[in-house]
């Protein structure tokens, strides 16, 4: 009787064709695991990536963008503890050396190795430690190593984040790290998705971009864009099943939504998970702009921390946008109670129960039929503490 | 011997031709003064105004925009304790009634009465109380009432803010309220400037817009745009001296800068006054965009609260802008120490002394010769407390 049932496996090694491992390189002062490897044994090695839009990009992002431009990834090396961001040409050299080292250990080309880093900004990577950690990880690569890899990319995450979804004859797995963009200089979101479906680079790219657009890119915990954000999708083709592009897009979107929810609920310092639904908008862009303006408004976020259904602050946030609406036609509900109709007070605010962690804000713009959802957290003493008490 | 020396007077009654008063109407539960009147006795009554760009405008803003469109203001009535924002058509009616009442008491037309309100959002004004307070204030109008008026417009301000500057044969006075956009739902900035110079509406408007552009509009304490922000400039012409437009612009700018500094240093919850100077920019707009991105970045603001010279977060904030720069050419100094050169670590961060309240951040974009300065505060436990603990 086998102790390992592949049908129950979650994470990056759930699909066939992938091995992974986690190891301790000593980059983190805590001595926790801080290096992960994900290897695609094929037969295919198609891949797609989505990266931070921050113009100050960390060295591993600059490297991996080049790798992904060719559409082939045979291995991903990830480290936590140091982001290798704002480190200049020397930092890029460190990333290059890491890719070369991984390639040599695995007998592949360095141009097929993607690199991800997360942790302190502005300090050089301890490369010797990292390369030794890579050696350790390479020796323990296994078909069940996904969990160890997910552990090794944690920074202030209180738990590892993994997912598994089943397609029509193939499997999608994944892992992510990130404390909802709320952590101290450790805000980076990293995500690696794997599938044993057969899919070319274009299909993977389209699926991943659409999935990110409506999930990770609508999680706006504190409005701060990291220098290192990276989302990768790797296909091994080991199932022999060609993915239907529409089904694959749905599956990747569901996986990203699941992981985004895990990030948000683990956001450091947060006491509320806030879902902002903007409806009756003229366009989806309008709906997203309004949702994001509310999500980023510190006065709204502190009010939610204080269990205060302060719809006036929500209206003031909406008023900063260029979305199509008339102020005297705005309706706002918090947790189902329409406390604002036509831009003025409506149902009794005392009826709004904000005692739980989940908060739902609904805004009707009265300008059309488009809609979008944006997710955020509250702004708390825990956030200020996390981000002021730790020096980098 | 007179006990009143006009040469020492500060505030809105410093220039000739103005009377003012403060009174207690009972709008504030605390029983503190909450109604102010400023009256221009002429001979002129030219005026200009700058208002919030928030599209959700409070009723007094909608009213006063119409009044200022005609360029004549003979009186300003201001109340604290209630912002009359998000109150719909009924709220506009309350503002209209207030202007009518002031006009009747003073024997002027309601279309020459500007109205300003600050305080709670989303609740109707207690109009009966306000009108009774107006009667009290009207009875105590005096040439030395500027200080009482400045007191009466305070909300969470710990002190009244006034200014006086002398031009070539005329005087400029002013008062402001606002706790640096940091107060709980009471973020409104109100400012009334007065002068006894002779100046037509166009000259006043040009001077006020230019002054606001480089002062109040570059104070960005928490990025939240109020529904009620109003800055007014009234000229009585009582000195008989025609103001040179350039000198008047300089004087108004200096007065606004002085008041902006007073607002910032009184920002509730703040422990740092932060000056962000962006130099070597391709354009002034680029410099402002970069300064604002830094000023609004919660990770930068919490780092400053923690006395952490975290230049990596500053670079990440710069990277979110569309300003012209190359990441590997960015230099950053904090309190005079160039801790980042060429986008990477430079001088020792241990040399940065952040123990004081004043913090100076200098960013060199290396893209031209334009510059701009933006002012902000840190993000603190006090901010979260102020904005979460008080329910509106």
TrEMBL record, chains A, B:
Substrate binds at residues 155, 177, 188, 268, 387, 392. The active site is at 188 (nucleophile). GO terms for molecular function: L-glutamate N-acetyltransferase activity; L-glutamate N-acetyltransferase activity, acting on acetyl-L-ornithine as donor. It holds the Pfam family ArgJ. Heterotetramer of two alpha and two beta chains. Its main location: cytoplasm. This is Arginine biosynthesis bifunctional protein ArgJ. It is an enzyme of class 2 (transferase). Its EC number is 2.3.1.35, 2.3.1.1. It catalyses: N(2)-acetyl-L-ornithine + L-glutamate = N-acetyl-L-glutamate + L-ornithine; L-glutamate + acetyl-CoA = N-acetyl-L-glutamate + CoA + H(+). It comes from Actinocatenispora comari. The lineage of its organism: Bacteria, Bacillati, Actinomycetota, Actinomycetes, Micromonosporales. Pathway: Amino-acid biosynthesis; L-arginine biosynthesis; L-ornithine and N-acetyl-L-glutamate from L-glutamate and N(2)-acetyl-L-ornithine (cyclic): step 1/1; Amino-acid biosynthesis; L-arginine biosynthesis; N(2)-acetyl-L-ornithine from L-glutamate: step 1/4. The record marks 118-119 as: Involved in the stabilization of negative charge on the oxyanion by the formation of the oxyanion hole. Catalyzes two activities which are involved in the cyclic version of arginine biosynthesis: the synthesis of N-acetylglutamate from glutamate and acetyl-CoA as the acetyl donor, and of ornithine by transacetylation between N(2)-acetylornithine and glutamate. Signal peptide: none annotated.
